C-alpha cells in the first residue's frame, strides 16, 4: 500500500514473485559523443545489497545515477537500452522521471542536508509528494531506521547543519527512507566519513536490507566484500563480471576481476 | 641551529615588508574615500541643517525659500521606489531563476547573458529616452508615476538580474540533487530550496539597485517628471516629482537660500536611503540566521 497518491507506475507490478526489482538490459550511456557505459546487463535482487566496484572513471557512478534518472540533469547525457522496474522501462515515454525518483531514492557522496531543521529535512519529501499521515511519527520512524533518533531526538528543530558529517549522512539516509523507496541508491556514501562513522553506516545498511533493496557504489573493496550480497565489477564502461560477492572476491571468473580485487591495479 | 639561514631570513624579511606596504596602500585608499565622503557630508550638513525642520518636510515647494519644503518630492520618491521595487524585484528574480534553473545552456542563453551585462552599462539618460518613447508616448501612460517607475525598473533590472544569478549560482548542486532525489519537481526544488538559499545574495543586489534608482535624476527629467508640484500623487497615474529632481531644481536657482535648501534636501534623501537599506539588511540578516 502506497502512502502517496497519483502513482504513474503500476503498483501491483512490484508485488511480482520475481526476485529482481530492477533489470538492466543492454544499457548504454553517453555523454554527448563519449560513451561512458557499454552494453551492461544484470539484475538487482530484492532485499539484497548490490555493490558496484571498479577503478575511477569506470562508469559506475554514471550507471548508478541512471537508475533513478538523475542523469537527466546532465547536459548531453543519453541512456539507451532498457531498465525494467516492475513491468516498465524507466526510460519509457509514459514514465514520469519525478515518479521514478520518488520510488527509487538516492544518497550522495557528500552529505547534503537541506539548510533547515532536522525535522524539516525528513518531512519535506513526503509532504511535497502528498503524504497525509502523521509527520511526527514519520520523522521518528525514519530517524530510528537510520539509527540517528537517540542522538537527535531532543533537537529535532535545530538546524541539520550543526550535525557532524557522519550524522548528516545518516540524516540523508533517513530522509531517503522517509519516502519508503523500493530501491535505495548510494553513491560512495562513506567516502567523506571517518572509519567510525563508516562502520555505523555499514551496520545500518545491514539492518536495512531486510526491508529495502540497496545498490551501492563504492571505492572501497573491503566495504563491498563486507556488506554486499552481489557485486558488479566495471572497468572502462564495461561490466566485466557480475556475481555473488563471495565468488567475486574468492574465485572470480575473469582475470581482470582477480587483479583488481587483489589490489594489483586500480 | 637557527631555523633559517641568514640569506633565507633576509629574503623572508623582504616578503614581510612587501605585505606590509601593500596593506598600508589599501588602507590609505580606503580611508581617503571615506574621508572624501565625510567632507562631503560635513559640507552638506553645515549648509542644510539650518533649514531642516518639520516645516521643510511638511511643505510644498514655494518660490519663497522660507516657505519651501520637500513634501511632494519626498512622497513622490517613496511612491516611485515602492513601485520600482514592486515591478523590478519579481521581474528580475524570475528572469534570473529562468536563466539559471530552467533555460538550457545553449547559444541563446549566452546571447541573453552578454546582452544583460551590456545593458547594465548603458547610461541612464538612454533609458529615459526609451521610457519617453515607450511608456509615455506609445502606451500613453503620460508623465505619470507609473511611467517613471517602469523606466527606472528597466534601468535597474540588469543589476538585479546579474546579482540574483550570481546568488543562485552559489547554491550547492547537492541541495538540488537532494530535492530531486526525493521526487521533487523543478518548481518545488526551486521554490523550497534554491530561492531561500539564494535570498540573502538576491537582497544584496536589490539593495544596491534600489539605492541607485533613488538617486537617479536623468531618466526622470527625460520622461518629464515635474519640478514644481503643489499636490501629492494619489495613484500611479498621477504626475509627480522626486527628490533628486527637486534638489536639482533648487541648485539651479540663483538665490543662495535655495542652494541651502538643496543641501537640506540631500540630507533627507540620504536619510531615506539609509532607512531603506537598513530595513533590507535587517530582513536579509534575519533570513540568513534562520538558514543556519
Entry keywords:
heterodimer; A: six-stranded mixed sheet; four-stranded antiparallel sheet; globular; B: 292 residues; MetI-like fold
Commentary on this structure:
The complex is a heterodimer of chains A (266) and B (292). Chain A has ten helices and ten strands. Chain A is an alpha/beta fold and 266 residues long. Chain B folds into two domains: 5-51; 57-291, MetI-like fold (Orthogonal Bundle), CATH 1.10.3720. In chain B, 76% of the residues lie in helices and 0% in strands. Chain B contains eleven helices and no strands. In chain B, helix 3 (71-102) packs across helix 10 (243-251), helix 8 packs antiparallel against helix 11 and helix 10 (243-251) packs antiparallel against helix 11. The longest helix of chain B is centred in the first third of the chain and has 43 residues, at 6-48. The termini of chain B are far apart. The A-B interface holds A 68, 70, 73, 75, 98-99, 101-103, 105-106, 108, 110, 112-116, 124-125, 128-129, 159, 161, 172, 175-176, 179 and B 104-105, 172, 174-185, 188, 192-193, 197, 291-292.
Amino acid at each position: 500500500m502506497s502512502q502517496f497518491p497519483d502513482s504513474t507506475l503500476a503498483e501491483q507490478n512490484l508485488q511480482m514473485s520475481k526476485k529482481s526489482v530492477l533489470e538492466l538490459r543492454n544499457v548504454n550511456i553517453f555523454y554527448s559523443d563519449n560513451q561512458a557505459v557499454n552494453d551492461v546487463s544484470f539484475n538487482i535482487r530484492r532485499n539484497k545489497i548490490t555493490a558496484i566496484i571498479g577503478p575511477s572513471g569506470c562508469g559506475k557512478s554514471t550507471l548508478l545515477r541512471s537508475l533513478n534518472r538523475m542523469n537527466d540533469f546532465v547536459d548531453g547525457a543519453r541512456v539507451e537500452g532498457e531498465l525494467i522496474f516492475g513491468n516498465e522501462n524507466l526510460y519509457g515515454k509514459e514514465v514520469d522521471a519525478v515518479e521514478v525518483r520518488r520510488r527509487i531514492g538516492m544518497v550522495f557522496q557528500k552529505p547534503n542536508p537541506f539548510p533547515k531543521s532536522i525535522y524539516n529535512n525528513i518531512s519535506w519529501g513526503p509532504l511535497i509528494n502528498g503524504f497525509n499521515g502523521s509527520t511526527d511519527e514519520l520523522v521518528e520512524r525514519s530517524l530510528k531506521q537510520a539509527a540517528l533518533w537517540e542522538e537527535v531526538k531532543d533537537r529535532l528543530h535545530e538546524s541539520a547543519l550543526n550535525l557532524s558529517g557522519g550524522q548528516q549522512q545518516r540524516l540523508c539516509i533517513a530522509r531517503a527512507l522517509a519516502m519508503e523507496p523500493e530501491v535505495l541508491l548510494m553513491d560512495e556514501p562513506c567516502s567523506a566519513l571517518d572509519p567510525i562513522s563508516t562502520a555505523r553506516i555499514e551496520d545500518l545498511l545491514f539492518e536495512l536490507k531486510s526491508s529495502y533493496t540497496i545498490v551501492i557504489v563504492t571505492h572501497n573493496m573491503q566495504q563491498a566484500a563486507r556488506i554486499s550480497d552481489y557485486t558488479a565489477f566495471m572497468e572502462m564502461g564495461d561490466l566485466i563480471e557480475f556475481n555473488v560477492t563471495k565468488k567475486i572476491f574468492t574465485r572470480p571468473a575473469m582475470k581482470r576481476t582477480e587483479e583488481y580485487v587483489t589490489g594489483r591495479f586500480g | 641551529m637557527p631555523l633559517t639561514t641568514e640569506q633565507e631570513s633576509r629574503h623572508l624579511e623582504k616578503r614581510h615588508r612587501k605585505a606590509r606596504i601593500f596593506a598600508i596602500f589599501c588602507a590609505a585608499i580606503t580611508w581617503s574615500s571615506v574621508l572624501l565622503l565625510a567632507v562631503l557630508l560635513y559640507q552638506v550638513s553645515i549648509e542644510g541643517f539650518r533649514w531642516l525642520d518639520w516645516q521643510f518636510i511638511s511643505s510644498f515647494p514655494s518660490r519663497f525659500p522660507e516657505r519651501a519644503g520637500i513634501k511632494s518630492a519626498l512622497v513622490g520618491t517613496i511612491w516611485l521606489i515602492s513601485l520600482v521595487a514592486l515591478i523590478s524585484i519579481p521581474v528580475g528574480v524570475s528572469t534570473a531563476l529562468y536563466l539559471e534553473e530552467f533555460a538550457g545552456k545553449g547559444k541563446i542563453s549566452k546571447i541573453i547573458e552578454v546582452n544583460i551585462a551590456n545593458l547594465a552599462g548603458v547610461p541612464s539618460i538612454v533609458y529615459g529616452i526609451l521610457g519617453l518613447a515607450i511608456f509615455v508616448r506609445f502606451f500613453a501612460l503620460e508623465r505619470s508615476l507609473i511611467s517613471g517607475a517602469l523606466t527606472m525598473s528597466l534601468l535597474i533590472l540588469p543589476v538585479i538580474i546579474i546579482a540574483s544569478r550570481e546568488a543562485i549560482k552559489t547554491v550547492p548542486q547537492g541541495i538540488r540533487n537532494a530535492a530531486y532525489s526525493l521526487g521533487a519537481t523543478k518548481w518545488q526544488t526551486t521554490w523550497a530550496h534554491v530561492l531561500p538559499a539564494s535570498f540573502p545574495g538576491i537582497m544584496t543586489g536589490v539593495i544596491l539597485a534600489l539605492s541607485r534608482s533613488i538617486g537617479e535624476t536623468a531618466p526622470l527629467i527625460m520622461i518629464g517628471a515635474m519640478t514644481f508640484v503643489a499636490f501629492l500623487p494619489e495613484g500611479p497615474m498621477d504626475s509627480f516629482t522626486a527628490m533628486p529632481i527637486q534638489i536639482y531644481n533648487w541648485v539651479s536657482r540663483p538665490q543662495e537660500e535655495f542652494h541651502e535648501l538643496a543641501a537640506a534636501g540631500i540630507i533627507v534623501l540620504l536619510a531615506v536611503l539609509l532607512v531603506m537599506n537598513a530595513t533590507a539588511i535587517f530582513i536579509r540578516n534575519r533570513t540568513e540566521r534562520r538558514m543556519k
